[in-house]
Amino acid sequence: MTHTARSRWKLRSLAIVAILALLAAACGGGEDLDEGAGTDTGGDTDSPAQDLSGETVEVAATWTGAEQERFQMVLDAFAEQTGAQVRFLSAGDDIAAYVGPRIEGGDPPDVAIFPQPGVVDSFAAEGSLIPIDDLVGDVVDADVPGGRDAGDFEGELYGLWWKAAQKSTVWYNVGVFEGAGVQPPESWDDLLVAGDTISDYGVAPYSIGADVGWPLSDLFENVYLRVAGPEKYDQLAAHEIPWTDQSVKDALSTMAELFDDPDQLAGGQQGALQTDFNGSVTQAFTDPPKGAMVFEGDFVGGIITGETDAELGADADFFDFPSIDGSEPAVVSGGDLAVLLDDSEGGQALIRFLATPEAAEIWAAEGGFISPNTQVSLEAYGDDVSRRAAEALQNAADAARYDLSDLQPTEFGATTGQGIWGILIDFLEDPSDVDGTAQALETAAKRAYGE
Amino acid sequence: MTEGATAGVAAGGRAAAPRVDPDGADGRSGSFRPRARRPLAIALLFLLPALVLLGALVVYPIVFSVGRSFYDATGSRFVGVENYGEIFSAESTLTAIKNNLIWVVVAPTVVTALGLIFAVLTERIRWSTAFKVLIFMPMAISFLSAGVTWRLIYEQDPETGVANAAVGAVVDVVRPPGSLPGARPSDEEAVEQTASGLETTATVTPGDTVAIGLVAIPPEQIPSGATAAAEPAAVENGVGGTVWLDFTPGGGGEPGQVDAEERGLPGVSVEAVDADGTVVANATTDPDGTFTLPDVSGDVSVRLGASNFREPFSGISWLGPALVTPAIIVSYVWIWAGFAMVVIAAGLAAIPRELLEAARVDGASEWQVFRRVTVPLLAPVLGVVFVTLVINVLKIFDLVLVIAPGSAQREANVIALQMWKTAFGARNFGLGSALAVFLLVLVIPAMLFNIRRFRAEET
């Protein structure tokens, strides 16, 4: 009798121990909150090389791989000038989800680089950002055309447009083009013919990194800008016309011409869905190549030089996104904006530093970077390819449109697996369902706009 | 914060259970020391630290979240139960709920069953401690790093993914890849792709020639030793032909024509097939791509067998939309099986040996002993392990976030992940709180079950 009673007690204590173990596991992984508290000393804006030794500045950004290394070089230069310690925080693709909890927790990084103005607006609206007009307002007005539009929210400047992206480029493997005997196409129809020829040659023509979906949204924007024209583009960006508009369906049908033969995608559809953006670039420029063309912006160049042995200009080059049905030349641009989350001296100094041409020239020399700052001379670019892309952006001026998905509310335009990104991933899987895709986009847009 | 709330709630429930016990004890011991005589102030004093902690870490966040869930994204407008309606109308949350259901049904069952099997088996082997340590080891790894490890294991490319490398090693032996994977006919009207290979659409008779041009062969896959392709030559009583790469390097060749710079494809197996579909002759191509099918009579079509074109194993999409949830559950089982095993093994050790011996003496087989004696005696432990895992599984988050690639994250979505994305990604704290409250409601039955079990054991 006593025996069973004791074993039962044993069982219960075991259970309690088990639960405590679980609890401990659940509570683990707290974050240390050793931050130098919000030092609020606005003052001395003049001396660029102020002494910040002992200060730690945290910067969150989405860059990885070669891009992260180059940005680190910029940060190192800042650290050298000021003596501050700079910590780079890798935020993953969904920077809002990374920075959000840090803000809630009262310990935001000093500076974050947001890849979408839409995110700047979302955070500015809830009061998490610190206006930077006093720090760099003059520089932006004088030297960064379009910089105020990109970084402003309700009349105050919150984001410093630091890195421009020229997203209307198509990168190609020169060796494959030569082997297949095709020329860089100028029209969409030529592109499709070239694609078929390259496929006959034995290489999948298109390498698409559809793992997260933003390269797909960039592709859609380029097609849409050409199929529907800049005016409709602006209307769609502001959701003045619905996503079920015929122009959207036309653009989707055009895009489907790339997807409907899985042989033409590197790795097939499933392969594309599991390839991240960096992978889609490296697999097209390694030997033997798995793909021939990458539809993405100038920054592809940086990944090619940083992560493959291919040489820009010789092994890898780009052509302008082809015209569709005789459309005028047009450019989809984008960019990364630096925001100030913590009004610390180090954070302010870093924002001021990023606004200088010198900071931009460090990365420009390495490739894969275009500065929207006109004070950055074209000579500063380390290679002809970047210089050409930078020139194209400067020349496009009126026909340039800001990346459409980046202007959307975060939920619709820039959340992993949701909204535009998620729905276009579905579309890649089933390119025949144009109407369903347009409907899904409209439903998601309505939800995000709160209509 | 909201995530902390649910975790805290679950914790609170479990922590509260033993705290209930003193009350029960009071009730029983009341016969010789009435409750009324105990000074209330002292009781409160002792309870105070616990109450303050519970209040600040559990009760306040819950109340706050419940309240917050009735407001819109920014917290400025009262929307009633609209957020809850949203949970059951948005496709993303419905997928999350469906997946949570799959998780709760599958994961705790498999983990408990495996734990039981390991626990019983380790009792019988020599190196049981080493084995137990091995199985328990994953518990010592953080979920994040375990997730990263499994993401690598599941990579689609057999070159990087261990799972696919293992499957591929077997598949490539059973079905060796052909020499020309992915090749297509250059003239799809003259040669069609069928299940058994590439076959000419028109039939030929002895003395005819056949030219089969192929494309889509990457330069590095052209068989070594290939020489310039030769025009097909006619033979008597047979069919002569050429199989060649109908793509002039650098472009410019005429499709369907054997052009000067085009190369033959050696080593391709060629069959002549008669009207009934039986193979009447075989040949293999020479370095210049030519072949001769001898002794053919009547109308035949010429076929390049499917084995020539078989793709090498390209990997199972473990993390594709179809398999992603089962794949993540496997990694969860890997982590938690050790926990279940250790707890159940401890329970097993507490079972009186004489009962098992008695059963054996009475002539029960080992299976009967296990089924009729061991398992019933272990039932309380199994129940605790199972329910604990149910609570743990309901709030699964990290593994899904880390393992599922972006393209499959919607298919792999679970409530806790959706809550985090909604609240901190899309900055909609109203809907996020509603999801947190919903998760809490789902956990409550499991908590009540645990509390009841403790109470039952008291009496």
Which parts of chain A are unreliable, with pLDDT below 50 for 5 consecutive residues or more? 1-7, 19-47
Report mean pLDDT of chain A, rounded to a whole number.
85
- Spatial sequence of strands, sheet with the most strands of chain B: 2-3-9-6-7
Helical residue percent of chain B? 40-55%
- N-to-C order of helices and strands of chain B: HHHHHHHEEEEEEEEEHHHHHH
What is the radius of gyration of chain A?
24 Å
Shape of chain A: globular
Secondary structure: elements and pairs:
The complex is a heterodimer of chains A (451) and B (459).
Chain A: H1 2-27, E1 56-61, H2 65-82, E2 85-90, H3 95-104, E3 111-114, H4 117-125, H5 133-143, H6 147-151, E4 152-153, E5 156-157, E6 159-166, E7 169-173, H7 174-180, H8 188-201, E8 204-206, H9 214-237, H10 246-259, H11 268-273, H12 277-282, E9 291-295, H13 300-307, E10 316-320, E11 331-340, H14 345-354, H15 357-366, H16 384-396, E12 400-402, H17 410-413, H18 419-429, H19 434-449
Parallel strand pairs in A: 1-2, 1-3, 8-9, 11-12
Antiparallel strand pairs in A: 3-11, 4-5, 6-11, 7-9, 7-10
Helix pairs in contact in A: 2-15, 7-8, 9-10, 10-19, 18-19
Chain B: H1 2-29, H2 40-68, H3 82-87, H4 91-122, H5 128-136, H6 143-153, H7 162-174, E1 184-185, E2 191-194, E3 197-200, E4 209-215, E5 239-245, E6 269-273, E7 279-284, E8 290-293, E9 301-305, H8 324-349, H9 353-361, H10 366-394, H11 398-403, H12 415-425, H13 429-458
Parallel strand pairs in B: 4-5
Antiparallel strand pairs in B: 1-4, 2-3, 3-9, 5-8, 6-7, 6-9
Helix pairs in contact in B: 1-2, 1-13, 2-13, 4-8, 4-10, 4-12, 5-8, 8-10, 9-10, 10-13, 12-13
